[in-house]
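Board notes (copied after class):
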Amino acid sequence: MPAFPPIVGDNPSVLVLGSMPGRASLEKQQYYAHPQNCFWWIMAAAFEQPVVDKYAQRESLARENQIAIWDVLYDCERHGSLDSNIVKKSEQVNDFSSFLTEFSSIGRVLFNGGAAHRIFRRHCAGIMRDHPEIEWLQMPSTSPAFASMRPEQKLAIWRLALNRE
């Protein structure tokens, strides 16, 4: 099942990239919909906002803080939700050349976990070279599958990356 369009406002300064939505996200057509994924909690805490349940309010939080949200992959074959189950030969990448041209205000890309970073580098290394003005950072995954770091530790790292000037 193909992924869905990005969350993006007028002048995003940061692009957060996941690998590919998991089963819960695809079913709800919402980014980071798994109840144990701490992404939306991190976004709220990083911008000192209350955590909200309504997805439209979550999208607004991102847009109001110049955060764009998308995934590296548009489509792939994967059994379950684990990134380790993505079949490499099935990976179809989103059009980042056009996206970064249209949203030239983006100065930082935050990869939500190692898989997103690896997949992007595998398919889009040229884009990284073509945009030396962009800071490319691998972040700790907000997924519950990445349990070796507590949510509070993840928050501290994400907060620094999201709030840089």
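Comment from the instructor: The longest helix spans residues 114-130. The chain has six helices and six strands.
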